[in-house]
Amino acid sequence: MTSQLFAVCFNATRPSDLATFWSGVLGWKAAEGPDGDVAILPPDIADPAGFRIRFLPSQEPRTGRNRVHFDLTSTSPEDQQRTVARALDLGGHHLDVGQLPEEGHVVLADPDGNEFCVIAPGNKFLADTGVIGALSCDGTREVGYFWSAALRWPLVWDQDEETAIQSPTGGTKITWGGPPVAPKTGPNRLYFDLRLPDGADWEAELDRLISLGATRADTGEGAGEGGRALLLDPDGNEFSVQRLR
After folding, report:
1. Are strands 68-72 and 29-32 parallel, antiparallel or unpaired?
2. Assessment of whether the complete model's pTM goes beyond 0.85
3. Measuring CA to CA, which residue among 144, 221, 209 is closest to residue 177?
4. Architecture of domain 4-176 in CATH?
5. How many CA within 13 A on the CB side of residue 100?
6. 145-160: string of b/e by CB count within 10 Å (b at 16+)?
7. Where does the record place the Glyoxalase-like domain (predicted)?
8. Are the C-beta atoms of 217 and 233 separated by less than 8 Å?
């Protein structure tokens, strides 16, 4: 059995506060995570393409821009304005990353400084994807191919070194913008949490991911304890693989 995208994890200075922010922006309900952490759940958590968002305590200082950010969709100009207003009311703020007025999207940061975009309505690439239209990643074509094989999600875009994948059942896309890729200056604040169904061969799945281009990041004492492993994708981004409990 193949690993599934179980969660997008935020390392946060104040996990409960950040969960409250994103719950309010997305309209997702709060719940206790699988390891006692704070999480928010989409309306249909049973959807195979769905994932939760987990907020984990961390005091790691912010170093540079995140390699992953959310692109939120809008159904109308008024809907886009409401999403922006809701985010600002909840403690978000505008962010200038060099975007142009004619680009139509609004760039914001959450209370912990994590960037995200509210996309204008009518974006055909994000049509029918849901409120989180894309997990937009800074990364190479190679890493897009890796994640397509790792999750067994087909490529839905592969042009000019930009790639995108999407679950066969639809939902949020994961995109990579191609070079130049900003240097990695520390652990990522956002990372993917993969889970294997109960009864799946965990070691065989780790071997499969490594054969696709991943490397182990937890090779010290205690690595893999409790059925959890920390790996790096071909671009050096951390991700975890665990047995589903």
Report:
1. unpaired
2. yes
3. 144
4. Roll (3.10)
5. 2
6. bbbbbbbebeeeeeee
7. 7-119, 135-241
8. no
Q: Which two tokens stand for residue 238?
A: 């951390």
Over residues 31-82, the pLDDT tens digits come to 876 666 899 998 876 565 679 999 999 877 677 789 999 999 999 999 999 9
Cβ contacts of 65 within 8 Å, gap of 6 or more: 97, 115, 138, 182
Long-range contacts of range 235-239, CB-CB < 8 Å, 24 or more positions apart?
A: 235/67, 235/139, 235/140, 235/142, 235/143, 235/181, 235/184, 236/184, 237/67, 237/139, 237/143, 237/184, 237/188, 237/191, 238/187, 238/188, 238/191, 239/191, 239/192, 239/193, 239/194, 239/214
Question: Cα separation of 50 and 127, whole Å?
Answer: 16
Q: Which two tokens stand for residue 164?
A: 């995108």
136: tokens are 């937009």
| 141, two tokens | 């074509």
Q: Which of 73, 177, 172, 68 is nearest to 118 (CA)?
A: 73
In contact, 39 and 235? CB cutoff 8 Å: no
Can you read off the two tokens belonging to residue 74? 């809008």
pLDDT at 226: 64
Query: What is the pLDDT at residue 61?
Result: 67
- How far apart CA 212 and CA 85 sit, in angstroms, is 43
Q: Is 70 helix (H, G, I), strand (E, B) or coil?
A: strand
Amino acid found at 42? P
